[in-house]
Amino acid sequence: MEQSRVVEYFEGKLGKERVLTENSVLQEFATDITGLRMVQKHFGWSSDQLATCVLKIQTKEEASEVITFLNAEKIVNVPRTGGSGVCLGLETPAQSVVLDLSDMNKILEINEENLTVTAQAGVPLQVLEETLNKKGYTSGHFPQSLPLAQMGGLVATRSIGQFSTLYGGIEDMLVGIEGVLPDGTLTRIKNNPRKSTGPDLRHIWLGSEGAFGVITEVTVKIFKQAPERVMQAFAIKDFKDGLSVIKEIVQAGWKPAVTRLHDRTEAAESYGPFVEEGESIMLFLSEGPEGFASLEGKEVARVALKYGARPLGSKPLEIWLVHRNDICDHLDMYAVQGAVADTCEISAMWSDIGTIYDEVIERVKNEVPHLVAVTGHSSHSYEQGTNIYFMFGAMCAPSTEAAQKTYDQLFGIIMETTLKYNGSICHHHGVGRYRAKWMKQELGTAYTMLERIKNAFDPNGIMNRGVLLPQE
User: Fold this and answer.
1) Would you list the DSSP string of 198-256?
2) Are residues 144 and 129 in the same domain?
3) Are residues 351 and 402 located together in one domain of the fold?
4) Are residues 278 and 311 in the same domain?
5) pLDDT confidence of residue 404
6) pLDDT, tens digit, 9 for 90 and up, residues 169-220
7) How many structural domains comprise the chain?
8) Which residue in 445, 408, 439, 407 sits closest to 424, CA to CA?
9) Quick one: 354 and 290 in the same domain?
């Protein structure tokens, strides 16, 4: 169907004010906040793959009707809420349609008996958290993107928060969910604490990145705000010793809500007054019922001291709590300096994570010209392993092509090394379009399962084409 007829159809259904076609708006919605695009925009990049229009969806019925039409006409669409993705998952194929659900922003129910909250997909997480806090509750979910993220996108990207060791990731919090399938069918998975009725269908939506349908509503757990909190930090000489401290703590059954280990570069940059040259820094926050946090805090300190850590008190963690989301106010901070900078989070078993960290740092330092910095920290840990959140930056010639080459080299080293040691190429940012090229290596023989799920749910290929599975 011609683009003009598509626009005319939706203006008739939604009204002209909710069908956006201005070039500046289409450019704004053409991508996400991936670091590569940030620096390329500074060098003059603009997308040549613009959507036909952006639709402001306000109800689940509208979402169903719109997708039914798009499926019948075989028009690709890109579902979107907060727009805080960092893996090119929101890039618009040419002549696609963006479904902006950010107007679906109502908190529908806070159920204090069952400790759940039900919210539409466009509810900002920060608004949800502030609303819960006033009633004495918390979502327990604190991603770095907290000021930007919205509920549908958090589920679609399989998000995780900075207090995850205690509260878990979004997959641990999701109770029920509603969404629209690619043929327009509205489906709901009812709220229940657990059931054994076949595969857990919530996981079709978790991490789906808009490839299997559009999330319209979610129900997640909430938690009573903890009456007791213990905060402490430690300097430690060797990064791998820090990993050993965390491993021993979590494998013993303790779950400090915040469990972080920053390498020597990050420690010097952010906590310089507290650490000596070459030291890494560990941050721990325990919270829970009266007495529990104190008991856990004592055990955390015992294990840290056992490995020769140096106590630093609570001040470093207090500083982190104040500044942990600052980057959301300065997204283009490095781009305006002409630096290719971004983050890349991977995960692996305890037996391999230290080797991955060492090899990535060494390779980047030896192989990437004009390197500004490469750092890493562990921020989400489990009995079986942990993640490393790499941060990198390098200067390049002032062109979009040079930025792409430098970015591909930096990211490629992390992906290659992670796969070499059987780690996972993404821990919580999702796959998007950028990491899709490594998905066959990531999933191995299980890749065919993902292909079949995609083909079964979306035979016409209209849902966010190019995410999760690479375009041949």
Assistant:
1) SS-THHHHTT-TTSS-EEEEEEEE-EEPPSEEEEEEEEES-HHHHHHHHHHHHHTT---
2) yes
3) yes
4) yes
5) 98
6) 999 999 999 999 999 999 999 999 999 999 999 999 999 999 999 999 999 9
7) 4
8) 439
9) no
> Are 371 and 413 in the same domain?
yes
The domain spanning residue 51 has which CATH number? 3.30.43.10
- Dig out the tokens for 113 from the structure: 């008996």
CATH of the domain at 389: 3.30.300.330
In a domain, 443, yes or no: no
pLDDT tens readout for residues 9-45: 999 999 999 999 999 999 999 999 999 999 999 999 9
Of 74, 225, 87, nearest in space to 153 by CA: 87
Distance between CA atoms of 431 and 38, rounded to whole angstroms? 18
| Residues 380, 403: Cα–Cα separation, whole Å | 30
The model's pTM:
0.96
* DSSP character at residue 3: H
Q: Is the dihedral of CA 375, 422, 159, 99 positive or negative?
A: positive
Confidence of residue 330 (pLDDT cuts 50, 70, 90): low
- H or E segment to which residue 73 belongs: helix 60-73
Q: Would you state the pLDDT for residue 333?
A: 78
Domain that holds residue 315: 228-324
User: What are 386's two structure tokens?
Assistant: 């942990």
